[in-house]
Amino acid sequence: MTTNLQAATTLNNGVRMPWFGLGVFKVEEGAELVEAVKSAIRHGYRSIDTAAIYQNETGVGQGIREALAETGLSREELFVTSKVWNADLGYESTLAAYEASLAKLGLDYLDLYLIHWPVKGKYKEAWRALETLYKEGRVKAIGVSNFQVHHLEDLKKDAEITPTVNQVEFHPLLSQQELRRYCQEQGIQLEAWSPLMQGQLLDNPVLQEIAAHHGKSTAQVILRWDLQHGVVTIPKSTKEHRIIENAALYDFELTPDEVARIDALNKDQRVGPDPDNFDF
Q1: Which residue windows are transmembrane per the record (predicted)?
Q2: CATH architecture type of domain 14-201+231-237
Q3: DSSP line for 176-200
Q4: Nearest CA-CA partner of 79 in 155, 145, 22
Q5: Which of 7, 52, 152, 165 could pair covalently with 85 via S-S, beta carbons 3.0-4.6 A apart?
Q6: Is there a catalytic annotation at residue 54?
């Protein structure tokens, strides 16, 4: 299991992806964003996750460039993810969206490019575009986000390449057992967005009790639970002390009993949209 912040999982195409990274959902362009990215990289993070719809790729790219200059790391040591938005799902439009994301980020390639949502009747053409980008060596790995089992099954009918990653809402109140099992069987790496349920879990008594036992924060217990389930996780924070705290997960381990107690909190409760019922 993961022993440090640089620990990585090997995706189904052989590419290595860090188990832990920084998410920047709802972080606006500007100095705070640039500083958060730099701070994360400075403190050992090697994975940064953004998306076209976040409208902050320019700042993320600036943070990456400044961090590389400061730390002497190479671009190849980082793992950068972005996602194609729903309005751009289509063969040509997805190819164009990829170029637009690269231009904003100021990068030559992405490590991972995802279809952000499974828009009915649109995601197969978008997937064909991702396969083209992958075959041309323009992107290291391709995957999806917010796909349920039936979306993945549908995609599989026409896809030449199996997605490497499925990034979904995942936290103790939405532990996605069926999807997790399916992805494991198919060799698709599950990745958690909103792992802390946008802060709504931080005062959960079961989590607080386990955290107190380990001398850790509730957030650290949740993120450790993700990792022990083999789920890649990308908590969002712009505050340096929180960025450091979130990553301090490698000096303790949850017992099987504690993992089971956290698993038992599941209510299939979402904080984000339902992938089977969204209209954007």
Answers
A1: none
A2: Alpha-Beta Barrel (3.20)
A3: -HHHHHHHHHHTPEEEEESTTGGGT
A4: 22
A5: 52
A6: yes
Torsion angles phi and psi, residue 275, rounded to 5? -60, -15
Question: Which residue type, as a one-letter code, is found at position 59?
Answer: G
Alpha carbons 261 and 103: distance in angstroms, whole number:
46
* Burial readout 113-128 (b: 16 or more C-beta within 10 A, e: otherwise): bbbbbbbeebbbebbb
Rounded distance between C-alpha atoms, residue 229 and residue 3, angstroms? 14
Q: How confident is the model at residue 2 (pLDDT cuts 50, 70, 90)?
A: low
Q: What is the largest CA-CA distance in the chain?
A: 53
Q: Which residue has the tokens 């996605």?
A: 176
Closest CA to 20 of 277, 256, 280, 250: 250
Over the stretch 102-112, which tens digit does the pLDDT of each residue have? 999 999 999 99
Cα–Cα distance measured from residue 275 to residue 104, given in angstroms and rounded to the nearest whole number:
28
**The overall pTM is greater than 0.90:** yes
Region 27-48: mean pLDDT is 96
| Whole-angstrom distance, CA of residue 111 vs CA of residue 75 | 10
Tokens of 128: 């064909």
User: Phi and psi dihedrals of 81, rounded to 5?
Assistant: -115, 140
pLDDT of 86 higher than 70: yes
Of 54, 98, 134, 182, catalytic: 54
What average pLDDT does the segment 25-46 reach? Answer: 96
State yes or no: pLDDT of 1 exceeds 80: no
| pLDDT confidence bin for 4, thresholds 50/70/90 | confident
